[in-house]
Design goal:
heterodimer, A: mainly alpha, two-stranded antiparallel ribbon, 2 strands, about 0% strand, B: mainly alpha
Chain lengths: ~475, ~500
């Protein structure tokens, strides 16, 4: 029996990130020098991006016996993932330093989580998918609990862990049922087998229910959304920033791989489930967000509604819908990075800028930061000329194109409700007078520069959305050819 | 209809982007008020330049054709077939000039009055002005929508930042109300995209056959979007709040321009895209318009707040516009358009007059005034002229449009005309009664006694508007000439059914 090494080319970025993360852990243990860890993390992310770009080929590549796939969608999402992690690391540094959390654990866990996302994004096998998911989830549980002596954070971590484990159980049960009727765990093979037909439809639908429920947990869509607000609020802001951004890319890829790559023949089963989940998320997310006074909690509910919108794109079951979904998730990650980034950036001098009230009169204290926040809020509300508008437009277009006009109407009506709480933040920024003891914020150059780029990207991609749309369309074409 | 791609920067692009660029430039000079003088000058420069670049649109306009002129086409989002497509006809062109002209007045009117965050105030108005020009010049559905929505943002900030005590409520109400309408329109735009085989070009949509069912739904969606903006009874309730709380400049732009966007939408979208539904449901629009004219006129009569009174009078006057459009005859439609322009001048002037008094006494209540003529004779003269124009006195612009619409209505239904004509009574009652209580009589209190007459800046602003009001009242021909061909073309288009079965 000969042993052939699998083609390692498509997994080079993963191998590199894994190696570097271990190296960072070792180097930190040896030198005890945080000033080394931070630049090494940044280097890892930038270099991984370079590797991803240079190993990218237009074709779909399978390796490890079909367990791992590298395609254009994976490359684009991974690149976005590197950027998101990089932004998180840069935005959080002052926050972590001030709170004594500036330790190697944050960076190592973030990188491990990133690795988990990368594996998920490239998974073509139930087990690979599951390993990636667990790597991501376990890193996130630990990150939430990073602030050891904070009762709130510990509670959030426990809640996250228990509910996450439950969701993993659902997912595994659904997978085992599907394995039972098809006899394979490989997604592309499963798609072929289901296409051929002959399976017990009852078991298929039953397995799908569990799978979609697990998926719903991980995406944080209603009715499996309960953990989202508590964890967003309880975790340290820097960790919320991370949870709220990059993992959404992986969650999107996860949904695409499972439902579109693997279970597309069962589209009529999951379409209805996704539609119900999407509408519920839009309703609960937007309505509950109105009542929040804590901005992290408000943004958590807004995340729920955004994920609902994202599901609508995938649910339409068309190429345009998948492309729109990808565009939406990238736009969302940009907006989420910016808004949570600002929350983290303004949490200084012992103050947690957690309440919406803490932003009062920001315009008269720091007009530029207020303008950035306003851009992000308007974009999240889906107003032109910001990128959030095109994200919503693309989804709505795919819905109308697929004949779901009523769903489009429901979606825009909930956007209207959603506009209210985003407007309220803008109101606080611009219309209210600052609190007398409100701090002024001296600029931290590198953080402020990246935040500005982030905010302006939301504006510029709104005025000129074509490059990003082209990229998403290309990626989808190459992936689903 | 549209050929040739112009790669150079066209006049319409300049009209849109020059004010926006000026606004961004002002913002870049900093948020503090140390550089306020420079920012004011920059704003004036930007607005005057913005107005000057729109003048060739008038002088170079060919009134003999109904085709789109000054057309610019460029790719914008090719994946969705969205184009940067601009052009004007006789219906839209006057509003671009009106808007740019109003912006100059607004900048002048705010010169010394706005003392806090002057730069942001001026910038908001300039950006708003550019976006409004974009609304009138867009020939692509999504481009139109982008401008249509984006213009809410500066206005929201203007009302909320520089408005009165209840400004936050008014700003949010204004925003959500108008957003409600436009989101339904967005779905309609997407529906039309698929019906027309993948095009967002408005002129192509004019030719797309649609079933009566589709036309009805589209009519409802578009009607919501534009009726809220006009605003028509019963979706008008945001307007009095927004007007009362907005700073003077905000009220002026709101009344003079943004209301016109709604009426313009009727002509650009509803009538040509769903002509059969428009005929079918014309009676609804006519009824609502007549309610606005009569009922809102009566509501205006009992107002104790001057701004609120003018706001209600705006709703009544806009009722004339929508009434004129749905008479389906040239007199009515041109009358409606003339009324729109005239109302732009008159409402701007009325709000500026209230602003002049408010700057001195800081009250909008009629009861807080009395005998203003004694201390401000020059101002009283101007105010008199504008009040008369608001009441529709012949020889002012207010008369022309209303008279044309009433004449048009007589051709269709005598009773409609009779009801519409009551506005001449109500309009005169509420305007002149307010004028009497504010301006005539003995000096009401010591605040009025201390009022100083208008300075040269205010004189210029009101004088310019007086010229417009009188000029248009005495010689409206240039205005009707410009729009005549386009209106005839639109009416001919609307007369043909485009029903698909």
């Amino acid at each position: 029996m000969t042993f052939a090494l699998p083609d390692l080319n498509p997994v080079l970025p993963e191998i590199f990130v894994l190696g570097m993360t271990c190296a960072i852990l070792l180097i930190d243990a040896l030198f005890k020098d945080r000033d080394l860890t931070y630049p090494l993390t940044l280097f890892t992310l930038v270099f991984a991006a370079a590797i991803t770009v240079f190993t990218s080929v237009p074709q779909v590549q399978f390796t490890f016996g079909g367990q791992f796939v590298d395609d254009a969608m994976a490359d684009v999402l991974k690149l976005m993932g590197y950027f998101a992690t990089l932004a998180v690391v840069v935005y959080s540094r002052p926050y972590l330093v001030e709170r004594g959390l500036y330790k190697v654990e944050f960076f190592a866990l973030a990188l491990f989580a990133l690795l988990g996302m990368m594996v998920m994004i490239s998974a073509n096998h139930f087990l690979t998918l599951y390993i990636g998911l667990e790597l991501l989830s376990l890193s996130l549980y630990a990150l939430v609990a990073l602030q050891r002596d904070s009762a709130q954070a510990t509670e959030a971590a426990m809640k996250y862990f228990v509910l996450g484990a439950l969701a993993s159980g659902f997912l595994l049960y659904g997978m085992s049922l599907l394995y039972g009727i098809t006899g394979t765990l490989e997604l592309s093979v499963m798609a072929q087998l289901l296409q051929a037909g002959g399976q017990d439809q009852m078991v298929l639908a039953f397995g799908l229910v569990f799978l979609v429920a697990g998926l719903g947990f991980k995406l944080g869509v209603a009715p499996f959304h309960m953990w989202v607000p508590d964890i967003y609020q309880g975790a340290p802001s820097a960790v919320t920033l991370f949870i709220g951004s990059a993992p959404k890319l992986a969650a999107f890829a996860f949904t695409m791989r499972l439902l579109v790559d693997g279970l597309h023949p069962a589209v009529e089963y999951w379409q209805g489930m996704l539609a119900v989940m999407a509408v519920l998320s839009l309703a609960i997310g937007n309505l509950a967000a109105i009542m929040q006074t804590n901005i992290k909690r408000m943004l958590a509910y807004s995340t729920i509604s955004h994920m609902g919108f994202l599901l609508l794109g995938i649910m339409s079951g068309t190429f345009a819908g998948y492309t729109a979904g990808m565009f939406y998730v990238i736009a969302y990650v940009l907006m989420s990075l910016g808004s949570f980034g600002l929350v983290v950036y303004l949490s200084r001098n012992g103050l947690e800028a957690e309440n919406i009230d803490d932003f009062r009169g920001l315009n008269s204290r720091n007009p530029w930061l207020a303008a950035l926040m306003a851009i992000l809020m308007f974009s999240m509300a889906g107003l032109p000329p910001f990128v959030g508008f095109y994200a919503k437009l693309a989804i709505l277009q795919s819905l109308v194109g697929a004949g779901f006009v009523w769903l489009a109407v429901v979606a825009v009506m909930f956007s209207l409700i959603g506009a209210f709480y985003y407007l309220r933040v803008v109101k606080v920024l611009y219309f209210d007078a600052p609190k007398p003891d409100a701090p002024v914020y001296p600029a931290i150059p590198d953080v402020q520069a990246l935040l500005s780029i982030n905010g302006l990207a939301v504006l510029m991609l709104g005025i000129m959305p074509q490059p990003l749309i082209t990229l998403c369309t290309y990626a989808m074409q190459m992936t689903l050819q | 209809m549209i050929e040739g791609i112009d790669l150079g920067v066209g006049l319409l692009s300049l009209a849109i982007w020059l004010p926006i660029a000026a606004g961004v430039l002002i913002l870049a000079t900093g948020g503090d008020d140390k550089s306020a003088d420079g920012q004011r000058t920059l704003a004036l420069l930007g607005s005057v330049l913005g107005f000057l670049v729109t003048l060739p649109l008038w002088t170079g306009f060919d009134a003999a054709t109904s085709a789109m002129q000054f057309v610019e086409v460029a790719d914008w989002v090719p994946m969705f077939n969205i184009h940067y497509r601009l052009g004007v006809d006789g219906i839209s062109m006057p509003f671009i000039l009106l808007n740019s002209f109003t912006t100059v007045l607004v900048v002048l009117a705010a010169w010394v009055v706005i003392k806090e965050r002057t730069g942001q105030y001026m910038a908001a108005f300039l950006i708003q002005s550019g976006l409004l020009n974009g609304v009138f010049a867009s020939l692509d559905g999504i481009l139109f929508y982008v401008f249509f929505e984006a213009m809410l943002i500066p206005l929201y900030l203007i009302i909320g930042m520089w408005g009165g005590p209840n400004r936050v409520y008014a700003a949010i109400k204004f925003f959500l109300y108008t957003l409600l309408g436009s989101l339904l329109m967005l779905v309609s735009l997407l529906y039309l995209y698929f019906q027309s085989g993948g095009s967002f070009e408005i002129l192509i949509w004019h030719r797309v056959p649609l079933t009566m069912f589709a036309q009805t739904l589209l009519f409802i969606a578009f009607f919501f979007a534009f009726a809220v903006k006009v605003p028509m009874w019963p979706v008008h309730t945001w307007l009095p709040d927004a007007h009362v709380e907005a700073p003077t400049g905000g009220s002026v732009v709101l009344a003079a321009i943004t209301l016109k966007v709604g009426a313009y939408g009727f002509l650009r979208f509803i009538l040509p895209i769903v002509p059969d539904a428009s005929h079918e449901y014309a009676y609804i629009i006519v009824t609502l318009s007549l309610i606005a004219v009569v009922y809102i006129g009566l509501v205006a009569l009992v107002q104790s707040d001057m701004k609120k009174l003018i706001a209600y009078s705006s709703i009544a006057h806009m009722g004339f516009v929508t009434l004129g459009f749905f008479l389906f005859n040239p007199l009515g439609m041109e009358g409606g358009l003339i009324q729109m322009i005239s109302h732009g001048f008159i409402s701007a002037a009325m709000f500026l007059c209230v602003g002049v008094m408010y700057d001195r006494v800081h009250s909008r209540q009629i009861a807080d005034y009395g005998g203003v003529a004694n201390t401000m004779p020059r101002f009283a003269a101007f105010f008199m002229l504008f009040a008369m124009a608001n009441a529709g006195l012949p020889a002012t612009s207010g008369f022309v449009g209303e008279f044309m619409v009433i004449l048009g209505a007589v051709q269709v239904n005598f009773w409609w005309a009779a009801l519409a004509a009551t506005t001449l009574i109500f309009g005169a009652s509420y305007t002149l009664w307010m004028y009497k209580r504010v301006v005539f009589g003995p000096i009401g209190n010591e605040h009025v006694a201390k009022m100083k007459d208008i300075d040269s800046r205010e004189f210029v602003v009101l004088g310019l508007l007086a010229i417009c009001v009188l000029g248009m009242g005495l010689y409206p021909l240039p205005f009707t000439e410009v729009m005549h061909t386009s209106v005839d073309n639109l009416l001919a288009h609307v007369a043909h059914s485009k029903l698909a079965y």
